[in-house]
Amino acid sequence: MKSKKYSVICLLLCFAIIAAFFSGCKKNGGEEPGNESVTEERWSEQANEDYETVQVTGVELADIVEAALGDEAKDFDGDFSSLSKSQIEKVRDYAQKNGYQVENGPNGAPVISKTVPSSKKQNEILSKAGVTKADKLSDKDYEKVSKAAAEEGVSAVRDKDGFVSYIITETTSASPVSSSRANTTRHLTTVRDAREVYTARDYTRSYSNAPVSVTAPTPIKTTASPGSELTANGLTKNWVSTLGSTDNAQFEAACATDDGAVAVGTSNADNNGNSLSNYGALISAYDSKGKLIWSDVISGDGATSYDDVAVLNDGSVIAVGSTLAKNLVPKNEYKCVDTVEGVVSKYSSSGHKLWTKIIGGSGGDMIYAVAPTNDGGFVIGGKTTSADGSFRNAEDDGGLETKAFVIKLSSDGNNIWATTLSGSKHSSCDGLAVDSKGNIYGTISTCAHDGAFKDLESAGQLIHYCVAVKIDENDGAVQWKTSIWEVGSVTLKAITIPENEKGCVLAGNYASKVGGNKGTFASFYNGGSAGTTDGALVYVSESGKIELAKTYIGFESDVISDIKTIDGGYAITAYTASANRDFPVQNKGSYDCYLMLLTKAGKIRTYASFAGSLSDRATALCVKGSTAYVAGGTNSGDGFFEKCDAKGNENKSVAFMAEFKIDTDI
User: Fold this and answer.
1) How far is CA 239 from CA 199, 215, 643, 661, in A?
2) Which of 39-48, 97-106, 241-250, 623-632 is predicted with the least confidence, judged by mean pLDDT?
3) Dihedrals φ, ψ of 490, to 5°?
4) Which of 56, 346, 608, 624 could tie 60 with a disulfide, CB 3.0–4.6 Å?
5) Strand intervals (E) in 124-259
6) Do the beta carbons of residue 453 and residue 481 sit within 8 Å?
7) Considering only CA atoms, which of 536, 572, 614, 477 is closest in space to residue 2?
8) Alpha carbon distance 53, 662 (integer Å)
9) Per DSSP, what are the bridge partners of residue 488?
10) Distance CA 449, CA 458 (A)
11) DSSP letter string over 170-198?
12) Alpha carbons 130 and 89: distance in angstroms, whole number
């Protein structure tokens, strides 16, 4: 089993200050979001700290089905709708006979859970057996652990790697299933907000660095074995280019230009390649052959980042993000020098920085999104605790916590209008898109169920969820709001306008809880562990109705990072720790990159995976015609990135840009 270990560092080294202004998702009374009130019955169950009930992982589910059905289960991919009623009953019977608990889930599909010893109890079992750890056990030690576990009414299960997991067996007429794939108790931690926590990066900066051509293997079917690199029919990898230095960098967003693409993110090196004491905001432009044509890093006496980028009608480039620096602009342009501020920079098409402006007030302010408008200006979105400065004329719904905002600006960066949405808990605007008629669509992340969000379907669910919004281009008035939610969490940060320009399409991730899905994705079985992330796509019509919801699932955490419209459907970027189901190909690293082509109905048409032996993250996508550009960061120095400047350091990464050609006739 691959190691899922990867190191993380904060987005900006000093951004711990942000916690003082953005105390995200706290409930009144100190409860955490998503926790349901505990009844007396449940209280008595939870009082016993020796045992807990958890939903089985996708890997363990597959093992249970295989053990119950034998060869009949060879094509099972986690979707119970592929099984007949009699087969499902066999799975139920087998699971119950082997100590698992089975409940009815959506559409009658079984939800299988197990009672397991707590970590404390597991350590007691090991201590009783005289064994120090439950890994790579010999036959003799496994026999000791099994005996000690049996005395506690627990069955010990050893996988092929010698790792022991446990299950409470209520019925002992049969032995519990043992995993033939991987250990079933070690789970990857849910991926955190990619905009606010970055994987450690190795920024290798050299402006003379030439793009590296990638010779694609002969196209093959999407059944390649794990460990191989796949180029599927319909996608051809042309080149990949990285920036050269010894410091950290990663791209977070990208936008197509007339002859290539421009990407933004963060860098720990300045324009001369020297290390910075604080992270700087990075912007780099490439031509269609992979040559770096211009690049810039803005930095000051505090950490700075670019989080999104857009090209305006005249070819100029707008980069947006956040800063703790106090010297990026003249002092009189700062609203408050002791808080994080939003930052907006405009560049000419040739890379000359025209101006940098601060967006904010006396509170904390961060910008996550930007989109060009049809009049030559642009809209930005993010979160704020300010009610003055850039937000003094914003319509305020009286929310007490961090507010999501959308601001319309002219091409010169002057405010035209501002709108905020908030409640009594944290909210932020993560993505924006504008159609040809000028309609503005946005995606909001929130934990609030009051204020601007009180009438939504998700109200009262005590969860972190997503809200799609439509905003009037003339005055910023919110025309409708639609919630996309689950009993775990939903975060859909990527947004695009469909071909028919009737509404918007959102993409990102959701996580279920024990007990299965009950909200927007109730008809889907969560194929990963409860708490890990799976990919999701949702189409919202121009009237605010959810017309389509699709999921993209592997057995480990899967992160969809961006989405763009293409002829006949959509392209999405993702990075994943899975090697099965919708992400069947994995190379040697912890996270591997994917580029997927989807139909209008969200069905996977084809995909390409690309990676090295360490962590690789495809975080941004832009498309122009039949060309797709994928940007992100990698720790690898082999595989897809073998001929690049990546050094293969798990503690550092390089920013990369790669080009793919799309055949939309597949």
Assistant:
1) 24, 8, 11, 10
2) 39-48
3) -135, 130
4) 56
5) 154-158, 164-168, 197-199, 212-213, 235-242, 249-257
6) yes
7) 614
8) 46
9) none
10) 7
11) S--SSPPP--SSS-SS--PPPP--TTTEE
12) 41
Report which residue type is found at 233: N
Contact criterion met (CB below 8 Å) for 560 and 552: yes
Burial of 501-512, coded b for 16+ CB within 10 Å and e otherwise, reads eebbbbbbbbbb
- With CA atoms as reference, report the closest residue to 475 among 438, 503, 430: 438
Tokens of 538: 């949702």
Which token pair is 344? 């907006």
Q: How far is CA 223 from the centre of its chain?
A: 25
Inter-residue contact 443 to 430 (CB < 8 Å): yes
The DSSP secondary-structure symbol of 374 reads T
Residue 519's identity, in one-letter code, is G
Q: Three-state DSSP class for 318?
A: strand
Pairing relationship of beta strands 465-471 and 154-158 according to DSSP bridges: unpaired
Rounded to 5 degrees, φ, ψ at 80 are -70, -15
pTM higher than 0.85 = no
Residues 6+ away with beta carbon under 8 Å from 408: 373, 377, 378, 379, 415, 416, 417, 418, 473, 476
pLDDT tens for each residue of 319-365: 999 999 989 988 888 766 678 999 999 999 999 999 999 998 888 89
What tokens were used for 111?
């939800």
Task: Indicate the Cα dihedral angle 351, 356, 360, 362, nearest 10°.
Answer: 140
Paired with 9 in beta bridges are 198
Compute the distance between CA of residue 234 and CA of residue 479 in angstroms, rounded to an integer: 39
Which residue from 581, 589, 639 is spatially nearest to 617, judged by alpha carbons? 589
CA atoms within 13 A on the CB side of 639: 23
Q: State the burial class of residue 568 (Cβ atoms within 10 Å of its Cβ: 0-12, 13-18, 19+).
A: middle
pLDDT in tens, 366-418: 999 999 999 999 999 999 988 888 887 776 555 557 899 999 999 999 999 99
Altogether, the residues listed in the chain come to a count of 666
CA dihedral over 590, 531, 171, 108, signed as positive or negative: negative
- Residues 444 and 98: their CA atoms lie apart, in Å, by 44
Q: Could you give the 3-state DSSP secondary structure of residue 265?
A: strand
* DSSP assignments along 462-503, one per residue: -SBEEEEEEE-TTT--EEEEEEE--SSEEEEEEEE--TT-SS
- Beta-ladder partners of 429: 444
What confidence tens digit (pLDDT) does each residue in 297-332 have? 999 888 999 999 999 999 999 999 999 998 998 888
Please state, in angstroms and as integers, the Cα–Cα distance from residue 101 to each residue in 93, 160, 274, 515, following that order. 10, 25, 58, 11
Which of 585, 539, 566, 538 lies closest to 623, judged by CA? 566
Q: Which of 80, 43, 42 is nearest to 517 (CA)?
A: 80
Separation CA 216–CA 238 (nearest Å): 8
Tokens encoding 202: 């190795």
Rounded Cα distance between 300 and 281, Å, is: 10
Instruction: Write the Ramachandran bin of 209: left for phi over 0, alpha for psi from -120 to 50, otherwise beta.
Output: beta
